[in-house]
Amino acid sequence: MTPSEKSTPAPLPGPPPAWLADYQLEFTKAIRAPLDRSKGTLRSVAADKQGSLVQQISSGPMLGAAERLAVYNRQYWCRLFSVMQSEYPLVSRLVGYWFFNELAAQFLLKHPPCTADIQEAADGFFAFLQDTLLNSLVQPQRMIERRLVVQAAAVDEAFREAFRAPVERAYEPSAADAAKLGTAQLHMRRGFTIIEQSYPLVQLRKALSVDTSESPPPLPEKLKATEHWLIGRAPSGALQLQLEETQAKLYHLCIHMPVGEALARLESAVTKGDRSGLPSRVRVWLAQSVKLGLWSSIE
Asked: Which domains are seen in the chain, by residue range?
């Protein structure tokens, strides 16, 4: 091929027409418009509020311009509701999908998704629930206490964190680490969370994972004593390990202070009768935490 026969590169496209930016803005507003719930269904009213936009949309062989816009509007919300329900399966089943979708819509209107990863649309929902559910009864029809819903959200959030956190290499202690362990600081791996629950919510979430029905489950009864659970990512999937109260306290202390100071704080916190066997139990718990890969590093 001679130089004259070589194809010349295509010219770079020019700036988009001014009307396109305005059209995209109006279209985005339309599909993000909240669905009407007043008649017990999720009904699109985007066309009622975007008359000028409808005039710019062509009708199809089956649907008019307004109906075509309504399809986009409904599908936008149905896709997001599906994501939110999958990210918070325990909360959505406890309060029921209809009420959950209302909470999700309130959140998404304030925090519309703006990243390529649609799962990130649920980021911040846990904090939103904590701030939003101020009444003691979240849903009077089922008499659901706010504490129950917030704890359920904490359980769902812990599982989200377990699989969305960056993978970190687990700490492997060396012989030299033993000498400095008393003054060293342990760092927990991202993706691990220690939670407290007053209801058997971790167990309920596991049971609901194989329940194909969509009806809200019976509300769990309050536990006689608070439970402590470690949630994280394991090679085989999700780690769900119930901890003894003192064991959970040990891990919490080790997160915030050097190991030696954590052990001293723990000893002063337990009853006198428990102190005699505490050193051996601590050794077992620390060894278990290393085996589980709870820590990322020591310094």
From this structure: 167-209+220-299 (3.90.930)
